Amino acid sequence: MKTNFGKKEALVQEVEDAVLEVHTQLGSELLESAHEACPTYELELRGLSVQRQVVMPISYSDTVM
Asked: What's the domain range around 9?
């Protein structure tokens, strides 16, 4: 069984492979929306669950946004 570190390492490798696949097929001259959509699709093809544009609270200048 993989350790948590091993699982994280494997996930990072999947993301890197997916992004490389998109870059290989389409190149780097894509709109930002394509740079988001294409790797998302590629990761889903690999069986991973992906969420896009997730709202996260941030703290900036003593204010939570």
From this structure: 4-48
